Amino acid sequence: RYDAGKDGFIDLMELKLMMEKLGAPQTHLGLKNMIKEVDEDLDSKLSFREFLLIFRKAAAGELQEDSGLHALARLSEIDVSTEGVKGAKNFFEAKAQAINEASRFEEEIRAEQEEKKKQAEELKQRKAAFKELQSTFTQ
């Protein structure tokens, strides 16, 4: 919902807008610190995996009480007593589907990288075969 660029990441400005809409605005430095705390790949954006890391850290009690991430985790929790079991079910099914989509995306990237490696190896072999053929004509 908050990924305005539709690139699969939450950047600084999108995080700022999200925190404002959730009623917990943060300073620019606070937002940067929020991203830095869970930014595993150091791209200064939050991937879905890094976003979920916020909630994992919150559940483990690893977030400081006054941090923006703690506020985000609190604001994004689902209360089964108010939402009902069906609401919680939909919430968790949506999260699971998003995780599956992310792993499918990672699988596609791996396949693409393997294909590039294969093409590079074939090119290398063709060049070697050409040089060998060329050497027979230059002798």
From TrEMBL:
InterPro entries: EF-hand-dom_pair, EF_hand_dom, EFHD1/2. Gene3D superfamilies: EF-hand. PROSITE patterns: EF_HAND_2 (PS50222). Keywords: Calcium, Coiled coil, Metal-binding, Repeat. GO terms for molecular function: calcium ion binding. Residues 1-25, 26-61 form the EF-hand domain. It comes from the Eukaryota. The keyword Coiled coil applies. Residues 95-133 form a coiled coil. This is EFHD2 protein. The gene is Efhd2.
